[in-house]
Amino acid sequence: MNEWCELDKKHFIHPTSSIQQQQEKGPKVIMESGEGIYLKDIHGKTYMDAMSSLWNVHIGHGREELAIAAAEQMKTLAFSSAFSTFSHKPGIKLAEKIASLAPENLNAVFFTSGGSESNDTAIKLVHHYWRIQNRPNRRKIIALKRSYHGVAAASTSATGIPEFWDMAGTTIEGFSHAASTYRSNTESAISALREKIEAEGPETVGAFIAEPVQGAGGVLIPPEGYFKEIRNLCDEYGILFVADEVITGFGRTGRMFGIENWNTVPDMITFAKGVTSGYAPLGGVLVSDAIHEVFKLKSKGTLFHGFTYSGHPTAAAVALKNLDIIESEGLVDHSHRMGKKLLKGFKKLKDEINIVGDVRAVGLLGAVELVKNSETNEKFPQDLKVAPRVIEALHERGVICRAVTYEGIDIICFAPPLIINEGQIDELLTKLEESILEVKNDLVV
Ligand code: PLP
Ligand 1 atom closest to Cα of 54? Predict the structure, then answer.
């Protein structure tokens, strides 16, 4: 471990890490292999990957079919360009496949290599759309507070978690954030958005972007009816609605796309993560037929936007095999069923342990909040670090979850691989209960 640790400290700058802490301690875990919902570190300790790593390993680890799909594609055509007038079969097949899975009106795809690129692409496409519609002033983008849309220039600015703006000390002009439904309701969230649109000037707003379920913000699930109201409001003001399905896409919420839980159809969908289950980097933006028509009719000259790896043939072949597995193994319905079981277990914990506050799940995307008083939702003092301690206790028991803490709120997030079975959900719930009780007992002492 020491040798790996030292090399890591010397050369590896980790994403979203404390560089200082990393220099002192090095990585906590160095993973070596994975199978199903489990990961194994270099000492042979096994962990249940209850976050699907970064909410993305939908079909679980170690699936040989994907390795074979990648190897076969690499042997045939590892890479060739999709720029301009060039194309290739895996890219074409994948675009067609994703269009067939998406809501009916979304049939054209622009490929990227991940979620941040997808959201930046969507925002540039929004700007392009309004420019060619002779409405160049519609440049503003409204997002939600506590949303996460990525770390490229526009997606950082769209993100509603201020810590992400700190690194560069600023964000791009023209982005603002409205309150979500968290600790609130549809009515106030919709009026907050209406006020924001009015304050910005409706004629200057190009799009509203939101995650169907806010993931990094703490798995914040909107109430029934919220997105229908969002759709109506966007239509009323002629604003495009972009659904960021980077976490919620491809079965995570028990539906193929998260927004389908609320019977709402957006103008664009951004995706990444689960489209390949992380076996290759790939993302994209699905655009509606209406927008695609405008592009076809009015977009003159070259669309000066594209990544070397847009539609990467090997990544596309991996995505196709991954989507094939999601469909043939019925993982979307399975996610729905297992999500119900998970939520039932969370509710039981809430009934039995007085520091368990709100619990929620939609498909296999869930959260448990920890509070000082579950009647009033009174928070623990922030310096007690209750959620991080529970995460640590889970880690000791070989379970990887994620804590979200802000403004004194303690949330434990869950997003296990969609292949998780009933016995493994019981294992997760048992270890969660033990971990919460351990921390609770510690707090009393
Ligand atoms: N959008 C959402 C909702 C995400 O959760 C993420 C990543 O977690 C992103 C966008 C950014 O994706 P990536 O990290 O692939 O750039």
Answer: 8
